[in-house]
Amino acid sequence: MVKKTLGRRKVEIVKMTKESNLQVTFSKRKAGLFKKASEFCTLCDAKIAMIVFSPAGKVFSFGHPNVDVLLDHFRGCVVGHNNTNLDESYTKLHVQMLNKSYTEVKAEVEKEQKNKQSRAQNERENENAEEWWSKSPLELNLSQSTCMIRVLKDLKKIVDEKAIQLIHQTNPNFYVGSSSNAAAPATVSGGNISTNQGFFDQNGMTTNPTQTLLFGFDIMNRTPGV
Amino acid sequence: MRSKIKLSLIANKTSRRTTFRKRKGGITNKLHELTTLCGVKACAVISSPYENPVVWPSTEGVQEAVSMFMERPATEQSKLMMSHETYLQDKITKETKKLESLRRENRESQLRQFMFDCVEGKMSEHQYGARDLQDLSLYIDHYINQLNSSVMLLTNNGASSSSFPPPLHTSVAGAGAGAGAAPLVVAGAGAAPLAVAGAGASPLAVAGVGAAPLAVAGAGPPMAQNQYEPIQPYIPTAFSDNIQYQAPVDFNHQIQHGIYDNLSLDPNHQYPFQDDPFMEMLMEYPYEQVGYAAEHAHIPFMNGNYYNYHQPPTVGLTTTGHMPSNNATTTTTTNTTVV
What we know:
The structure holds two protein chains of two kinds.
Chain A: H1 19-44, E1 47-53, E2 59-64, H2 67-74, H3 84-125, H4 142-170, E3 188-189, E4 192-193
Antiparallel strand pairs in A: 1-2, 3-4
Chain B: H1 13-38, E1 42-47, E2 54-56, H2 59-71, H3 74-79, E3 81-83, H4 84-119, H5 130-156, E4 184-187, E5 193-196, E6 236-238, E7 244-245, H6 251-259, H7 272-275, H8 278-282, H9 286-289, H10 292-296, H11 300-303
Antiparallel strand pairs in B: 1-2, 4-5, 6-7
C-alpha cells in the first residue's frame, strides 16, 4: 500500500524559498499556534496575547481574554473598568461552556467518521460480491437503468403506503387531510414525521422544503390541509 | 498511545504549574519556527499568577510589533482579531458544519443500503420507523432522478439498451414441431432478442432493443426509435378447447389491499413481501407487468433468465378455434433467418 503522506520528517528551520509552500505552511502553523494558545489558556488559566503578521502583510491576533487588555497592560496603561473581575468571571464561564460544546461536537465528528470508515470498509469487502444494481447510476447501461427505475417506482409506492400505515398505528386519531384536526398532532410536524423506532439516528436527512409533503400538511402554517 | 486531555482547568496546582511551564516553552518554540520558516514578524505576551509576564521575542520586539499593529487602520486591526471566545465559537461552527456533512453522507449511505436491501427482499432485517420510510421515499426519488439523467445521457449518446454480448449461435425453439406450433426465437442484431412469429400464427410486431425497429409478419407500422417496450402478448396459461388468457394484474390494487392488511410495528412480524426478493415479486407476471428492458436486464432473482437472450415459454398450441390448426399435410418446417 502506497503512503498517502510523507509522514513526520525533521524540517530544517530556515526561511522557505518557494512562495506557495510558504503561504500554506504559514496558514497551517498559524492555526496550530492559535490552537495551542487556546488550550494553554484553558488548562493553565493563563493570559496571552499574540500578534502575527502574514507573508501577504495581513495581521492576525489572538488574545485571552482579549488582545486589547493585555496590550494596554503591557504598555502601562490603566484601563478604567470597575467591573473587570465580573467581566473576567463571566468570560471564564463562557469559555468553559464553549470548550464543553466544542469537545462534544468533536466527539460526535469522530464518531461519525468512524461510522463512515466502517461503512467504506464494508463496501470494499463486499465489492466483489456487489450486484449490478448496487453500482452507481452512471455505471449502469440503458436496460439496467430502465429496469431499476421501474423497480424503484414500485418500491416507492410500497414504502409510502407503509409509512402512512405506521403513522396511523402510532397515532390512530390522526386522519390524513382532515379539516377537523385543530392542530398538528405531536407525531407530525409540518409534514416531517418525527416518530422513529428505527435503527437510523434522528439527525438524518432533512426533508427538502420543495418536496411535496405527505399527509396534507402545509409547511408554512403547520396545519392540516383540507 | 497518547491519552486525550480534558479541556478544562487543571485542578492540581502543581500539575497546572508544570503544564504552564512546559506549554509556554512549546508556544514560544512554535512562534520561533513560524517566524523563521515564513520570514514574518510576530510577538507574544504571556502572563500568569505564577510568574512575571513573559514576552517573546523581546521587549523591544514586542513594542515594535505592537506599534506596527497600532499603525494599521482600526478596521484592519479588528478584522482578523480573535478573543478566546470568538476563536472557540469559530471552531465550533466549523466542526458543526463538518458534522452535518458527515451525518448527511452517512445517512445517505444508510438509506442507499436500506433501499438495496428492500430491493433484494431483506427488508425484514431492518428495524425502521415512519421517519426512516419517509427519508427512504425521498432518497428513492433522488435516485430515480439520477437514473433518469443517466438514461437521457445514454439515449442522447445513442447507446444500446442491451449491453450483453451477442450469443454464439442462433437459437431456434421448436423448429421441428411444425409451422405455427411454436414461435421461433432468433437473436437479432445488437444481441437484442427478437421473437418472430411462426408462419401462420397471428401477426406480432417486435422491435429489437437498440436495433432498428422491425415489422414482422405484416404487423402495423414500426415502433419509434426511442420506444423500448414492444407490445407483449398475453401467454395462455391453460390449453384446452377454450384458451384462457391470464388477466393483467392491478399491482397498485394488490399493494393497497393485499399486502398491508396485517401491519405490525413488531420488527419480527413477517409481511408477505419481506422474505421474497422485491424484484421477484415484480417479476411474478413478467409479460403483463414489466417492460422489455426489465426482462433483459439479467437480474438472477428476477426471472431466472441466465442467458443472453429471452426465451418465451415454448407452447404446444393444440387445435383450437382461436389458433390456426396444424395440418400435417401442409406443414413445412422453415429455417427462418433474420437479416
